[in-house]
Amino acid sequence: MQGSWTEFQKALGIDIPDIAIKLAVNEASAQVEAVLAGRGISLVRHTLVADMLEAGLLIRPINFSMPAEYHYYLVAPEAKFRTEKVRAFVSWISSEIS
After folding, report:
1. pLDDT cut 90: percent of the chain above it
2. Rounded-to-integer distance, Cα 54 and Cα 52, Å
3. Coiled coil where (predicted)?
4. More confident residue, 15 or 29
5. Helices (H), strands (E): how many in the chain?
6. 5 contacts 41 by C-beta, under 8 angstroms
7. CA–CA separation, 71 vs 97, rounded Å?
8. Residue 13 — left, alpha, or beta (φ > 0 → left; ψ -120 to 50 → alpha)?
């Protein structure tokens, strides 16, 4: 996660002293729980907190985002992508991310 903070600082042109980062949590759900408990701020994937942002449980203090280091792929044997259930899922997930 330290790499994410470094990229965040570079993108915004700011410098946050290392001493200001007190708690390092590597598991995303634990990060969100810490923020909800008032323990600070965190860089997290929007998809993990979209519902909480919409509900007003969390706020996004600055309107900034950056590309994620990781990507997700739908993988399965080719024949599975011809089934009705999988085609429906692919259609749904594609509409959700576009």
Report:
1. 10
2. 5
3. none
4. 29
5. 4, 0
6. no
7. 12
8. left
Count Cβ atoms below 10 Å from residue 31 Cβ, excluding itself: 22
Tokens standing for residue 65: 């985002």
Confidence of residue 23 (pLDDT cuts 50, 70, 90): low
Nearest Cα residue to 5 out of 33, 32, 30, 26: 26
The span from the CA of 80 to the CA of 82, in Å, is: 5
51, 20, 11: which is closest to 3 by C-alpha?
A: 11
Residues 47, 49, 51, 55: what is their CA dihedral angle, to the nearest 10 degrees? Answer: -150
**Coil, helix or strand at residue 74:** coil
Least confident piece of the model among 19-28, 54-63, 72-81, 87-96 = 19-28
Structure pTM? 0.58
Q: Report residue 16 as tokens.
A: 């946050």
